[in-house]
Amino acid sequence: MNNPEEVESIIAFLPIRISVIDSSEVDRYKQSRRKMNQRRRRATRSSTFSTIRPHVLKQMGQVPLLTREQEVEISKRIEDAEMMVQKYLNRSVSSPANI
Questions:
Q1: 43-99, pLDDT tens digit by residue?
Q2: Confidence at residue 8, expressed as pLDDT on a 0 to 100 scale
Q3: Are the CB atoms for 1 and 92 separated by under 8 Å?
Q4: What are the two backbone dihedrals, phi and then psi, of residue 65, each rounded to the nearest 5 degrees?
Q5: How does DSSP assign 2-52, residue by residue?
Q6: Residue 54 C-alpha from the chain's centroid
Q7: How many other C-beta atoms are found inside a 10 Å radius of the C-beta of residue 85?
Q8: Is the CB of residue 22 less than 8 Å from the CB of residue 93?
């Protein structure tokens, strides 16, 4: 696919956020991601789990669990979205002009 409109139409159907960058920006993007991951690792190492754990558990206890029906509904929505993405990806590979 060389047409930006075709790429954007496929991305619009995906249930995830995708950023398209110019090939000249790839190295700069990778470097910024590495720095961000390093900062996250340092922050995780410096925090003590003994202070985090009770707070997380307290919040978890306040969130109601899903019912079986809610879990089934979410699973069906995920499967439908995956099938839709697969359909559009297959269509774009087999005949890019149909998108």
A1: 766 655 555 566 677 777 788 889 999 999 999 999 999 999 998 888 877 765 555
A2: 77
A3: yes
A4: -75, 160
A5: --HHHHHHHHHHSSS------GGGHHHHHHHHHHHHHHHHHHHHHS-HHHH
A6: 28
A7: 15
A8: no
